[in-house]
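step: validate -> pass
step: tokenize input -> pass
step: predict -> running
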Amino acid sequence: MRSPNVVIVGAGGYVFPLRLTVDILSLRELQGCNLTLFDIHAGRLGRTAQRVKQLVANNKLPARITVTTNRTKALKNADFVIVAFQVGGVEAYEHDVEIPRKYGVDQCVGDTLGPGGVFRALRSIAALREICETMSEVCPNALLIQYANPMAMNCWATSLLGISTVGLCHSVQGTSRMLVKRAGFVYEDVSFRCAGINHQAWFTQFNDGVKGDIYPKIKAAMLAQNPSPFSSVGASGRTSKSLVQRGMDHSINDEHYYFERVRTEIMRTFGYFHTESSHHGSEYVPWFRKNAELVDAYIAKRWDYFQISKSYQNNEQQDYLDKLIASPLKASEEYGAQIIHSVVTDTKRVIYGNVPNAGYEGGSHLISNLPKEACVELACLVDRNGIQPTAHGPLPPQCAAINRTNINVQEMAVLGALNGDRDAVHQAIALDPLTGALLSLPKIHDMVEELFAAEAAWLPQFN
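step: predict -> pass
step: emit ->
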């Protein structure tokens, strides 16, 4: 069994590259891998490399570590390329959230849809094009494992650029565990089906091996625990319970991250629960963030990912990283290392991945009532043959309808990013459900132009 060549692009990140490395090296068959850490920022890359080398030394592992700021050297002969970057870092991210907020569009995360998600996509796709061009030259058969948001737009673009791509998120794992626990069932006894788009995939089935269909009980539990704040029996205003903001890990017991009035309200009307948190999920639809009263009623306490990102250098986060290095190797629930292990060892697994709705060969239609060109999230088989997406068939039509409002934005943003088309970017953000609920078209135009001006340094395709 040949040791795989694994590259982490964006290895200078504060937390996630080290978490990925621990995942990879926790699997025995991957402990002799050739791991290349690549970033364009030498200082941040050196910080991560020091910790990774310490991790290897602490555990006496045979892994070979290469550290480089040269993209071609990093990618040459790679088998797996893991993208985990944030182009422009916190500096660009601040524009993504603060400029729209000035116009009245308040995004608690702003990395998936809306003004923030679209501009993050423009920056990311500019960098991904360079990576894909180099991969085509020096590792054309490598699998691109995409962790960077906005997941759907980034994967849509890299697929169009001719690179085999799977996008990975942990919202399917986290939400399914939360729902099963809240309803009082044992997760290991439960199977489910889930499909849609990233951060808005729909759980369509839950079954217990003995008890059969348990989805009605899950729905009943969530409705009882999360009454509508505007119904005659609902609770109004923010919770008085003291909740703790978490920046890296989302325990299913975390009542701040998993405060579920938004997703439960969507389920109350549309019949199904989706994968992304209520805080983040409230950004993708027009119903929950139109004014302060609605935000206060549906969101217990602000979960502000920009502020979390700014805090990654604080002592608490550094202590987390130090403990990660010093502790016994233990994999997280992330799929990245599992995919590499399955391809290398032919271990059979099912993961949830973001893939082209047309399949890798272009002849499929995995979710039949979503556009064939879209990037969708659904169950995929993994073994030595790589990623093999499964066909889900149609979603409930009301769920597909909500997905399509988001796909409209994604499509125009990808076209804008790949073609340097400013008009397409304006159109993408005008089509965003929340932005359209809050702003007139002239105001949207002014906001987009201000974002273009502020982020010009990271948008070479528009200069």
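step: describe -> The two ends are 47 Å apart (CA to CA).
step: cleanup -> pass
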